[in-house]
User: Fold Maltose/maltodextrin transport system permease protein from Glutamicibacter protophormiae.
Amino acid sequence: MSLTHQKPPRSGDTAQAGALSPAAQRLATAASTSTGLILAKIAMIGIVDATAIFALFTAIGREAWAIAAVVAVITLVINVVYFKRGWLPAKYLLPGTIFLLIFQVFVIGYTGYIAFTNYGSGHNSDKDDAVTALLQSNQSRVPDSPGFPVTVLDDGGKLSLLVERDGVQLAGTAEQPLEPITADELAGFTQLSFADLLGRQQEVTTLAVPMSDDPSQGSLRTSDGRTAYQYTSNLVYDEAAGTMTDSTTSVVYRDTGVGAFTAPDGTQLMPGWSINVGFENFSKAFNDSSIRTALGSVTVWTFAFALLSVATTFFLGLFLALVFNDLRMKGRRIYRVISILPYAFPAFLGGLVWAGMLNKDFGFVNQVIFGGAPIPWLTDPWLAKFSVLWVNLWLGFPYMFLVCTGALQSIPDELAEAAKIDGAKPLQVFRLIKLPLLLVSVAPLLISSFAFNFNNFNVIYMLTEGGPRLEGAGLNVGSTDILISMVYKVAFVGSQRDYGLASAFSIIIFVLVSIIAVISFKQTKALEELN
Assistant:
């Protein structure tokens, strides 16, 4: 018996080696998948790290050290968690935790911080920025100042002034003071022609280029694009004394700790700067008579709106659920589909549609249903409130109808049959058996519905914008405004925006909703124990 030495088959030679075994194929597939996952993970982490590095340098460049530290810590945690073997739960929990911290915890904490400041219109920066803005405003031409021949340059739509002083060419923009410029740098700009100067006259005449980093030296301005003159502010800042003096009136404005330079008669120079004011915003909300009156009126209407919205939608939804759950009714499926159609309609769009239908002059309701009668559905305080409740009923009853239908169908039929055998009438069966069991299931949803309507911004703002205006109010609020729409108006509507006061209102809303939720859930627990 002789032994013959054979060479192993070459890879890919299927004629001699045959196909890979199933086990080998599984190993090859697993190895390929593992390699792909590793490459995908490296690519993902690379994108995150690149974005973090960009954000880190941006934050450091603006001296935002807290943001830079947070970005660095988050990036380090991401790299450690995803490159370390194991820690599988952390890999799933980390993204959600980061987004929770950024979009929930940070937002709540920052809102709480703003509530204790005067941050808002005229107080949205620090003191140095406010001083610079004041010195750059109210400027007038320096008497007998010489004219500087200038050239107006364009760099991607951004205007600059080119001036020669002491044999050196200087260029600057509205944000960048005059600085020496080389011929190579100058080649990237485009000189405005006479036609361009005429076409952009408004931009040219309003362009003010700072002479230097010191705002007290003023700026250069031109009215014709050919000659510029030096302009300086009428205000003189004394950093040591903390005063700002108006050179034309000799009035001295002092830093009295209110976030603005204030004259002896109480007049303030704007813009001011943001400072910590303690509980002043909360005190203003309850002690200022005009704000207190508006806040009280809005709070009462908010509770009324939330309670009536929940009650009307619940009872209408329950009534329809009872009717459509009766086996004797024909076409129940068609009626159910029709009933839930408003639920599929976006709330903000529904508000806009109903606003047009309820228009006093050309709305469908007045023109078609009431024969052209000019009924002020949205401009009369009480009719506007009725309209808001009606539209919210139209939008909200399908949800309650679905909830009540499911709860009723979960109640065993044997209970109702046993009650009927004992002589109970249909109304007694509903009141003593079905309703208590239904409330056990529906009560938590009623509480959440109350909390939702308590902050139901869409219907209020899209239908009436909170109007009509509430007379005598010290705030920009209306008769149909609820607390959340009032906060929106205080913070974002109008020329005077008070973010600090709006944040204080937000905290008040949070406290109210929390108290209501705690009390309501205690009552729900008691209801469950009774059943």
